[in-house]
Design goal:
- This is Sigma-70 family RNA polymerase sigma factor.
- Keywords: Sigma factor, Transcription, Transcription regulation.
- Residues 120-170 form the RNA polymerase sigma factor 70 region 4 type domain.
- By secondary structure, the chain is mainly α.
- The chain has 2 domains: 2-90, Rna Polymerase Sigma Factor, Chain: A (Orthogonal Bundle); 127-194, Arc Repressor Mutant, subunit A.
- It has 8 helices and no strands.
- It has helices at 2-13, 17-35, 41-57, 65-126, 130-141, 146-153, 157-177, 182-194.
- Helix 2 (17-35) packs across helix 4 (65-126) and helix 6 (146-153) packs across helix 7.
- The radius of gyration is 38 Å and the shape is rod-shaped.
Length: 195
């Protein structure tokens, strides 16, 4: 039997297609079964076919049938492992993309809520009495300190604190009357602090 394999191998190395077919018919099912230990049946078939293609491309280099078999199994195993790595990376990438999409959707929703709250806050600021409006804008929109506001408006710091407190309470009450829940009010205060 070994002489038959040696003859087939010699003919294969010389480019005889029928010798290659004999190798393929004898070894392909075994190689597919081996690959199925790592990957699914269709992938195993693809990897086995690709491995035999690599074997054909390097046909001149194979000295013995045992070298051919070793090449087939080692190459197929490496291809299976590469496929598994690729599938793992692909799964991680899909998971990361899904997380990015979810975060983007959440960011868009929060942005819409924030935009609506800012719009409502700005409307309510304009409806405040003149002194409250001036103190609120200088404090939250312009970033002035209490003593700077007091100086500019010729008020005491206590009056500035009171007017700012009245303005915040009026804005919160007006927005609460519009039906916004308490957690939205907390977000509104945070947004107002950022303005």
């Amino acid at each position: 039997m070994q002489n038959v394999w040696d003859d087939i191998n010699l003919a294969f190395r010389q480019g005889d297609k029928s010798a290659f077919d004999a190798l393929y018919n004898q070894l392909s099912d075994q190689l597919i079964t081996y690959c199925k230990n790592f990957v699914g049946f269709e992938d195993a078939q693809d990897i086995a076919a690709e491995t035999f293609y690599k074997l054909w491309r390097t046909k001149e280099t194979w000295g013995s049938i045992s070298n051919v078999k070793s090449f087939l199994y080692v190459s197929a195993k490496n291809s299976c492992l590469n496929l598994l790595k690729h599938q793992k990376v692909k799964a991680v990438n899909h998971k990361n993309i899904a997380a990015l999409i979810a975060n983007e959707q959440k960011a868009v929703l929060l942005s819409e809520i924030e935009s609506e709250l800012i719009s409502q806050i700005l409307v309510e600021i304009e409806s405040l009495p003149a002194n409250c409006k001036a103190v609120f804008k200088m404090s939250y929109l312009d970033g002035y300190e209490t003593n700077e506001i007091a100086e500019r408006l010729n008020l005491t710091t206590r009056t500035v604190f009171n007017l700012r407190s009245i303005a915040l309470k009026a804005i919160k009450t007006a927005i609460f009357k519009r039906g916004l829940p308490i957690n939205m009010l907390a977000l509104m205060v945070e947004i107002a602090n950022r303005l």
